[in-house]
Amino acid sequence: MTTATAVSDLTASDPIADPAAHRVLTGDRPTGPLHLGHYFGTLQNRVRLQDRGVEMFVLVADYQVITDRDLADRLAEHTENLVLEYLAAGLDPDRATIFAHSAVPALNQLLLPFLSLVSVAELSRNPTVKDEIAHSSQAAVNGLMFTYPVHQAADILFCKADLVPVGQDQLPHLEVARTIARRFNERYPHTDGSTVFPRPKALLSDAPMLLGTDGGKMSKSRGNAVSLGATEDETARIIRGAKTDVERRISYDPANRPEVSSLVLLAALCQERTPEAIAEEIGDGGAAALKRTVTESVNEYFRPLRARRAELATDRGHLRQVLRDGAARANAIADATLAEVREVMGAI
Ligand code: TRP
After folding, report:
1. Does residue 67's CB lie within 6 angstroms of at least one atom of ligand 1?
2. What is the tens place of the pLDDT at every residue in 24-80?
3. What does DSSP say about strands 23-28 and 10-11: parallel, antiparallel, or unpaired?
């Protein structure tokens, strides 16, 4: 992977001069409830982009789940649950197109020509895929594990998205999408010389990383995360159990005091203040006072989101309707792109 990608990628706080000139696509695998790390890492930023008038596509990457686990029987439930998290966080289905990529058959037809544009060697040296293989609990690696980044290129290119909000781990996949766009455009230009696909850029989150309550990477499966839908009591219990250190005076020093600093940061994000101001305020109060502040800040900040979430959760029909509407919009665009692809390839 070249460093040229990183140079041209943007971070979330870069000003977007003309919001209406962009189309943003991003997505998540539906593998379980989202937590505070997801919220401050990406969800909040998506809602900000939406509110600034950027056209948003958010996809539930249900087919990607079966790269390394067998969840096929509960995919529908997981997919609806992810829509619930999106809506609770503030994505508005009238402005953002929310859809499951398995509901868009044209993506699979784009996959075939796209697969012809990348070599097996390129597919097998993708560092994110290698990492997932290393951490997979499955006995054998299936073919989708190597090819899903190409399917993901179809996710991005079908709607000609030019900005893709992602974390660092997704940069290799974005590079695949850019490579495919470039090679497709070179090989199959329109007769007037114009090209089919833009070359998408990453929009990297610049929110600092929150740690799990054990000081490790925040992850639902490690039981070290506060989920968005947690009750206020559960939130208090999880934060009470968070790892801290022996120094009484609270400071914000991520390099030397990662666990304490992550808690300070969480309170700061919720109160929309600087971590330094939060640390100063707690001062000599020690870990107990810090945890009280964090718990109150989280519960207060997420109260409206959680209330919305509880209300939305009672209406599964609405969640399915959002997916149906999103799929209809996505299919219309994907069919048009596929028609264009077939035309330049001389397939008609
Ligand atoms: N691979 C992403 C993840 O694991 C999910 C994803 C699928 C995605 N298709 C995408 C992200 C397209 C951005 C753009 O989180």
Report:
1. no
2. 999 999 988 999 999 999 999 999 999 999 999 999 999 999 898 776 668 899 999
3. unpaired
Residue 97: which of 335, 329, 332 has the closest Cα?
329
- CB crowding 162-183: b at 16 or more within 10 Å, else e: bbbbbeeebbbbbbbbbbbbee
Give the CA dihedral 158, 162, 168, 173, nearest 10 degrees: 30
pLDDT tens across 106-162, in order?
Answer: 999 999 999 999 999 999 999 999 999 998 888 899 999 999 999 999 999 999 999
CA dihedral 327, 332, 338, 343 (to 10 degrees): 170
Q: Cα(78) to centroid of ligand 1, in Å?
A: 16
Answer yes or no: are the C-beta atoms of 200 and 161 closer than 8 Å: yes
If you measure from the C-alpha of residue 26 to the centroid of ligand 1, how many angstroms do you get, rounded to a whole number? 6
What letters, b where the CB count within 10 A reaches 16 and e where it falls short, cover 209-236?
ebbbbbeeebebeeebbbbbbbeeeebb
Which residue CA neighbors atom 8 of ligand 1 most closely?
27
Task: Summarize the chain as % helix, strand, coil (round to 5).
Answer: 60, 10, 35
Six token digits for residue 5: 């990608």
Q: Whole-prediction pTM value?
A: 0.92
Phi, psi (rounded to 5 degrees) for 219: -160, 130
